[in-house]
Structure formats: structure tokens, C-alpha cells
């Protein structure tokens, strides 16, 4: 393969495919290398997110919530149904069809934008050369003016809980259970562990989540994380904090997990175990010894604010670099890098990237938590409003949770927004947009929100920051 490209992207996940499409839109001759194959053994774009991450997990979360709602919630509305059953293979098949539709859509976008999809693996060599190993055939060396590394991440495996068949699985394996386990163990109470635990708990599994740290969701505002733990426990998730797993043993079709907590050594027996302790950058065989790209001690690639590595013309984005491991962060970095290569000035605002946990209710946040601002010593104020005071939430029987703003007391600027509640993933962007435009909390207070909507709780929380809330009783906090 003697072609020389303007841009070669290694990795076809959200960051990689977005970078390739944007580069092609800007008139650059672009190739994207992706080695993933689907469950059917066919080449697949979309990376972890579309194939075994964000999208399939949301499909299962949606299916399992509908089952739970039919079983537990419809009677609230006067709707009576017979015994509700779940056909797990059909649920999994629907999930796979959603994945297939979206990954096929990216392939069509590549074709429409004239992006060359090289099916196989890629390794960066010296002098911006790339070794391309096709899925079948001999390796070839291709070159480009610019190379974008977008290989993503993979689940972290731990020695005390090695994966085994379909009994001890990572997040990928947990998306393909063929039946509902009676007892399910989850190691890790992070985003992935809580979402996957929620899926199978709604379908009837007894779920125990073992988390080594003593605080639940330490990255989340404390007030929100405490509410989340209360609501998830109420739903049946048995979350055990300060529980450090020390070993696992598979006997027949059972998994025995040993762990230590404040009460000493403990054991639990499960039908299946999910290991969800985080993800690591996928740099395996990505860089040759003389590629020259610098990595830190955790194998993240060093980059500047516009994702340039220390090698001129080589960029790295997404889960390979600093910052949250989020698909939307990777996507925007990919677009930014393509723009930079084409000579345009673009910058990702890393202070305004929202995070979401798709439990029910959803947990979402953007910007600084009250804990962070309090620790800084800067004067601040907060506004909190519960969904229990929201007419639309009550009418929908979705009145759990709250919205919270953290505000700079001197400038009145919005520093952060935090929420747990119905559709929190959607209305968290009120806070994101406010921060992006440098809005004050007064700007939000003066806006007219439609009634009745869930978003009125955002308005009420903004008003509450200055003790102006109409629909909740407030006591002024003591200085």
C-alpha cells in the first residue's frame, strides 16, 4: 500500500471516527484503522462505546426498566397486567440490533465523507509511519502528515478475580448473559458496576456490589451521592463499602468471593460475578520502541491542551489521554484535533464536560462540586430543589431526587450543577450551557421555564441559591 495520507487515525471509536469524518470534511485525505469485529465476526466501527459500552448498556437499561415498571409501577396508574415475564435472549437480540444499526451508520458516514476504512490493526512507527496489519494478509507500512492515536481503553482485570468462562466476566461479558442469575456479585461501585448491577437487579437478580473505598461515588457531590446510595439501596442493590476483594474461587457453577471489611474476613457465593473496577488506556502494541511518544507511569499518553503529543504531527485523544474517560469528551477532542490540523482554532472546554450515571433515577453533574469549592476556601452559595415539589414529576410518579447549583458568591457565576432525578442526563445541559456562556445564577433565575416540566426544578434550584424559591420552604443558612 503506497498511498500517503494527510491524516491516519488509529482507532474507530467515538473519538477516532469523529476525527476521521471531520478531517475528511475539511478536505484532508483520511484513513481510519480499526480492528474490531462484531459478534457475527464482521468488521465493526464505533469502538467500545457503540459495541460493548454506552449503547448496548443503555439498551439493556431501558429494557430492564420497562420490565420493572410493568411489574412494579403500572398499578400506580390503575393499569393491571398479568404476570410479567422477561425473555432474556430476545432482550439481548434487541440490544445487538441497536448496536448493528449504529455501527453500520458510521460505515455509511465514512463512505459518504470518503474516509478510507482500513480493517485491521495499526502501530505508530518512527517518522509518522504506521504499520497496518490487515485482518488477513501481510503487514504494510503507510505514512501520513498527521497521525491521530485513538485506540481507547479496555477493562482493568485484577489478579484476585480472573475472568472465567461466563461465570466471572468483565463489563463486556455482562452484556450477554443468557439468563437472569439468582445471585449476582459486582466488584466495583463505579459507573459501570452500578449500571450493569441495576440491569440485572431489575430483572430479579439479588445483587451485591463490593466497593473497596469507604465513600460511595467519591467523584460525585456528597449530597447527591448520599441520595443516590439511599435510592439505589431502596431499589434492592446491596452496596457494601470498604469491602476489599481478596480472592475468588469457581466451583462448578458457583463463584465464591472472599473479601475483607470493617468486620473482618467475609465470603459470599454468587451464580455470576462482574468485575467492573475501571478501565485502562489501550496502548498494547500501539507504539513501536522508536515512535518517540511519551507515556506516564499509568500508560496515558502525554498531550497538551489541544491533544498534541511530544512528537510533532502526532496527536492522541480520548481514553488514551488525561481527563474523564467519556465518549463525548473523546468525540469533541477528535473534532478539535482535525480542526487544528486544518489550521482552524478550536478548543475543548474541559471545565464544562458533563458526566452521567444511567441508573434510575439518573445521576448527572458538570463543573465543581460543593466539596471542591468548599475545600478551596472561596465564598460560595448553593441552591437545591427536590423533584418532590415538581408537578410534572409527581404526575409521572418520578418525584425522587433533586437539582443542585454551586455558585461563586462574589461573581454570581455558576460553578457547577448536580442532579439525581428523572432525565437528569438531559437537563444537566442547562448547567453546562450556563457555564459555557459564563452565565450568572441570576440569568437562570430570570428565565421563564415552561410549566409543567421537569426542568422547572432547575429553575427552582437556581432561585433557591438566593432564597427566592417559590415552591419550597427555605431557611437561610448561617454564615
From TrEMBL:
<dbReference type="InterPro" id="IPR012999">
    <property type="entry name" value="Pyr_OxRdtase_I_AS"/>
</dbReference>
<keyword id="KW-0520">NAD</keyword>
<dbReference type="Pfam" id="PF02852">
    <property type="entry name" value="Pyr_redox_dim"/>
</dbReference>
<keyword id="KW-0963">Cytoplasm</keyword>
<keyword id="KW-0560">Oxidoreductase</keyword>
<dbReference type="InterPro" id="IPR036188">
    <property type="entry name" value="FAD/NAD-bd_sf"/>
</dbReference>
<keyword id="KW-0676">Redox-active center</keyword>
<dbReference type="InterPro" id="IPR050151">
    <property type="entry name" value="Class-I_Pyr_Nuc-Dis_Oxidored"/>
</dbReference>
<feature type="domain" description="Pyridine nucleotide-disulphide oxidoreductase dimerisation">
    <location>
        <begin position="353"/>
        <end position="462"/>
    </location>
</feature>
<dbReference type="InterPro" id="IPR023753">
    <property type="entry name" value="FAD/NAD-binding_dom"/>
</dbReference>
<dbReference type="GO" id="GO:0004148">
    <property type="term" value="F:dihydrolipoyl dehydrogenase (NADH) activity"/>
</dbReference>
<dbReference type="InterPro" id="IPR004099">
    <property type="entry name" value="Pyr_nucl-diS_OxRdtase_dimer"/>
</dbReference>
<dbReference type="Pfam" id="PF07992">
    <property type="entry name" value="Pyr_redox_2"/>
</dbReference>
<feature type="domain" description="FAD/NAD(P)-binding">
    <location>
        <begin position="5"/>
        <end position="334"/>
    </location>
</feature>
<keyword id="KW-0285">Flavoprotein</keyword>
<dbReference type="InterPro" id="IPR016156">
    <property type="entry name" value="FAD/NAD-linked_Rdtase_dimer_sf"/>
</dbReference>
<dbReference type="InterPro" id="IPR006258">
    <property type="entry name" value="Lipoamide_DH"/>
</dbReference>
<dbReference type="InterPro" id="IPR001100">
    <property type="entry name" value="Pyr_nuc-diS_OxRdtase"/>
</dbReference>
<protein>
    <recommendedName>
        <fullName>Dihydrolipoyl dehydrogenase</fullName>
        <ecNumber>1.8.1.4</ecNumber>
    </recommendedName>
</protein>
<keyword id="KW-1015">Disulfide bond</keyword>
<keyword id="KW-0274">FAD</keyword>
<comment type="similarity">
    <text>Belongs to the class-I pyridine nucleotide-disulfide oxidoreductase family.</text>
</comment>
